[in-house]
Specification:
This protein is of the alpha+beta class. The chain contains 15 helices and 20 strands. The radius of gyration is 26 Å and the shape is elongated. The two termini are 34 Å apart.
Amino acid sequence: MSAEDLRAAIGKRATIRLHGSEGGFRDIVGVLQSETSLINRRGELIEFQPDDVAFFRVIPVFNRRDADTGQLRIYDTLTREVKSIESRDGFISIYCCGPTVYRDAHVGNLRTFLLSDLIARTLTLQGIEVQLIQNITDVGHMADDFEEQDKMLAESEKRQVDPFEIAREFESRFHRDLALLNIRAADRYPRASENMDSMQKAIGELIEKKSAYVGSDGCVYFDATSFDSYGAISGNRLEALKPGHRYEYKDEGGKRFHADWALWKLAGGRTQMIWESPWGAGFPGWHIECSAMSIDFLDASVDIHVGGIDLRFPHHENERAQSNSLTGHEVVQTWVHGEHLLFEGRKMSKSAGNVVLLGDLIDRGLDPLSLRFALLENRYRSQMDLSWESLEAAHSTIRRWRKLMSEWGTSSELKLDNEITDSLATDLDTPRAMQRLRAIEKDMTIGAQDKRAIFLYADQVLGLALDRTLDGKALTDELKQLLQRREIARSEKNWAESDALRNQLESAGLEINDSAEGQSWSWK
């Protein structure tokens, strides 16, 4: 990024992505004061170097939040209704449950991480400043980990590698996958292992408030009966929860009530990933991690909490009970959950042999953004059945759109489209926004420059990198004119003219393909 480009935007509101010192990214939003500084909404002066800028965009005036048409409305799992997201003086905080880093995130996990990105991008489009925190669970304890051994330690034992070395490896691969999917980096990625003091402090406070107790086995448990509205998110009421259900760890004989859960587990025979505490050496329960970090990093006020539907119970139910008991108020204003993702009709699992990673798409020669495209064609809170066929179709459409974008010019101008704006603001109706782009593509009454400007406007949220240049030679003006003439001929059903133009184009080295979506081309 040149200093001249930044200098030209001085006085304007902009979003800037900076290269981080440890290989990641951080985003800053505010009004540019110079080519090396901006002031954010809190009045803080943030300085940077132009060489550190990975991405820079001026937020257009028309992107300002409009209370009538531009305000995001999204489904809240707690209230079971689509509700408006109210900003706090133009600011929204988001907490997204992150990965447990003992393995690669599969495409179902990535669907959830995309959801938080779509929410943040939509709010940014509306001129709202977003702070996004996503935790890294590097101490184990996923909901399906409650077997005989923690999976982080199991992977460590299998590979004969330190568990934290494994955690850092998969954390790095998680960030790589996010970048490949064009998911913007969160403001912070706090690790559970580096926030142990915060978790122990929260546990101590819960004991003081009589919301938790030391069990007969020396472990600390949350008293589920102390929280009157337990079950409000999932509908699972305490009186209906029966003993023997697989809620938590198998060795929890020290708790008073079967639905209580561990806040701190004593190490027992465990020798790795343990910490000293007032209750003895051990490790934290999974749920306390998100309560402690969301309270600490977002000042006990989370506007939107994002996660997969599988986390609704018990994780988010337990997190809400902990957080509200600690603060005395409703910490999370809106709970947003993404639905399950099937692959070719089946739930992904190791036993079924159908776990699909982003790397598998790349190995097949597919653009990784074909996954993002395919996910966008489905509502986030509807169960989705992904397939190789749908991914290949998405790959083809992305290539066609990028070719069209190059034919439509080189302008970086954006043009607001009310239907796209309304689609995104209405419970993230991305399928409707995608259909609008397909209609614009075919609409002969819209000029090429306007088409490009609308596609670029939508891509601020869709994130498909539609202005990315395809490999190969650039089209000459003559070839662009021939392609446009052929589009007109096909729309008028002048098949003779269409065939004659195809012959001219193919003689010039292009390969022409026709489909229900329109014509596409590639170099032979």
